[in-house]
Design goal:
- This protein is of the alpha/beta class and about 475 residues long.
- The protein has helices at about 45-65, 65-80, 85-95, 100-105, 105-120, 155-170, 185-195, 210-215, 230-240, 265-275, 295-310, 330-345, 375-380, 395-405, 420-425, 460-465, and strands at about 10, 15, 25-30, 35-40, 130, 135-140, 145-150, 170-175, 200-205, 225, 245-250, 255-260, 290-295, 350, 365-370, 385-390, 405-410, 410-415, 430-435, 450, 455, 470-475.
- The strands form 6 sheets. It has a 7-stranded mixed β-sheet, sandwiched between helices. The chain has a 6-stranded mixed β-sheet with strand order 9-8-7-10-11-21, sandwiched between helices. The chain has a 3-stranded antiparallel β-sheet with strand order 5-6-22, with no helix packed on it.
- Helix 2 crosses helix 7 and helix 5 runs parallel beside helix 6 (about 155-170).
- The longest helix has 20 residues, at about 45-65.
- The structure holds nicotinamide-adenine-dinucleotide.
- Nicotinamide-adenine-dinucleotide binds near residues 176, 178, 179, 227 and 409.
């Protein structure tokens, strides 16, 4: 029996807090289906406490110099790296993702964000604008209290990708993890406080959508950053607009990868694997519509099938495993429904196509060929290990079809033709793009979507613009020239 019970459900004002009056949240290990922790949703009283703590904590935090704030974030990054193994094990229990992945993609990515934004914190300045004798100076100021709301696929990373830039800019944060993966954000809060963060500056409250909604509509909140689906994004954006709050929306996708005849076949197959099967396909930026030019299609499918046969599906706690389960039984059933639709609508099954015969919520990595643009599996975000191959002949046709979606998160191109690579990527309607690779998201690069996939950018210097605002101060050197 695995036990991952945290000290308490919430982390508010620098300490763990429990209130068993809140609705129960069962945390289930997806590889076995066993309950590994029981938490409680935040009651209105706890939400109130977290927001009051954030409001007060933000004042103390913003009064510190950027360098001092940065030092805390960088210390937290060091602690995270020292504890990477233990944090990765927790991430694996929380999500079911293989330890082989979590050891390199979760706490390490969170540590990168804390280190990067910690390094930037001391150099967040405004500018001086001379206007004759008069002048203007600008100050980069924090927004105030930020609410972060997470999805379940990257619980440590999302908690840090939102927290690090928010805190670097002098804001406080109240973070609500996904009810599906409530464990990891508590560790982010704990480590930040161990690194010297003043109480109240980073709080974690658990809950379902109603807790998220209560946070978003609270007048004490100045900014909301959501990672989630488009339908939730619509609701959260609308609620935030009502209070004229700042937003970052990191939402879903149905991203295209365009593979041209001249592509390096191993790289193209590798990119398609990274873009469809990492985290068992539960990645927002996945390139699930793989457009393959006709001349390379058979070779591509044959090599993809061969490489998929080497997948190691199994207990995600075993470092040899490289393919884990779906996060919940519900998500598994959603994906199984898409597999049925794929077959029913006439797609040709190349690999996988069913639930794996083992405990837990495993689905075989699945490839469909001969997928057409109107099939459901080519139109809707599946969020599972399902790769659709669509054929194309000309560059223009591929670009037009790749863009024929309401989403615009990501896109990829595989070709050896340098000018084509840039010409094509320049025309794809997506925020995060790759040429001859896929799904790498280093903290130094902006990340985020266009169209229905989102608003704003995470990571890089660009994220600073979404967690701060400019104050402009005009300084009159006199005399004042009034009309009467
Ligand atoms: P979801 O939209 O169901 O939930 C996201 C979060 O929003 C959860 O914490 C949930 O409790 C909360 N929520 C639900 N209703 C709310 C409301 N009315 N007000 C406030 N909060 C509310 O998404 P999910 O199923 O957890 O995650 C999968 C989705 O997230 C996919 O669409 C995926 O593409 C997207 N995603 C996007 C990114 C990105 O960076 N673009 C990253 C990961 C996941």
């Amino acid at each position: 029996m695995t036990n991952a019970q945290p000290k308490a459900s919430h982390f508010i004002n620098g300490e763990y807090v429990e209130d068993t009056n809140g609705q129960q949240i069962n945390c289930i290990f997806p590889a076995t289906g066993e309950t590994i922790a029981t938490l409680h949703s935040a009651t209105p009283e706890l939400i109130d406490r977290a927001l009051d703590a954030a409001k007060a904590g933000q004042k103390t935090w913003a009064a510190m110099s950027g360098t001092e704030r940065g030092r805390v974030l960088r210390r937290a990054a060091d602690i995270m790296r020292e504890r990477n193994h233990e944090l990765s094990q927790l991430e694996t229990l929380d999500t079911g993702k293989p330890l082989q992945e979590t050891l390199v993609a979760d706490a390490t990515s969170a540590a990168d964000a804390l280190e990067y934004f910690g390094g930037l914190a001391g150099s967040l300045t405004g500018e001086h604008i001379q206007l004759g004798d008069d002048w203007v100076y600008t100050k980069r100021e924090p927004l105030g209290v930020c609410v972060g709301i997470g999805a379940w696929n990257y619980p440590t990373q999302i908690a840090a990708w939102k927290g690090a830039p928010a805190l670097a800019c002098g804001n406080a944060m109240v973070f609500k993890p996904s009810e599906t993966t409530p464990l990891c954000a508590l560790k982010v809060a704990e480590i930040l406080h161990e690194a010297g963060l003043p109480a109240g500056v980073y709080n974690v409250v658990q809950g379902y959508g109603d807790v998220g909604a209560a946070l978003v509509s609270d007048p004490r909140v100045d900014k909301v950053s959501l990672t989630g689906s488009v339908p939730t994004g619509r609701k959260v954006y609308a609620a935030a607009a009502d209070g004229m709050k700042h937003v970052t929306m990191e939402l879903g996708g149905k991203s295209p990868i365009l593979i041209f005849d001249d592509a390096d076949i191993e790289d193209a197959v590798g990119g398609a694997i990274l873009g469809n099967f990492y985290s068992s396909g539960q990645v927002c930026s996945n390139g699930t519509r793989v457009f393959v030019q006709k001349g390379i299609k058979d070779a591509f499918l044959a090599r993809l099938k061969e490489r998929l046969e080497t997948v190691v599906m199994g207990d995600p706690r075993d470092e040899a495993t490289n393919f884990g389960p779906m996060v919940t039984a519900n998500q598994m059933n959603i994906v199984l429904g898409y597999l049925e639709k794929g077959v029913a609508e006439g797609a040709r099954l190349i690999s996988g196509g069913k639930r794996a015969s083992r405990d837990g919520f495993f689905i075989e990595p699945t490839v469909f060929a001969d997928v057409t643009d109107t099939m459901t599996i080519a139109q809707e975000e599946i969020f599972g290990p399902v790769l659709s191959v669509l054929d194309f002949e000309t560059e223009e046709d591929a670009i037009a079809r790749a863009n024929a979606t309401e989403f615009g998160l990501s896109a990829g191109v595989f070709t050896k033709d340098l000018t084509r690579a840039h010409r094509v990527i320049g025309q794809l309607e997506a925020g995060s793009c790759w040429i001859n690779t896929y799904n790498l998201a280093p903290v130094e690069a902006p990340f985020g979507g266009s169209k229905m996939s989102g608003v704003g950018r995470e990571n890089s210097k660009e994220a600073i613009n979404y967690y701060s605002q400019m104050k402009s101060v005009y300084v009159g050197m006199g005399p004042v020239d009034a009309p009467f």
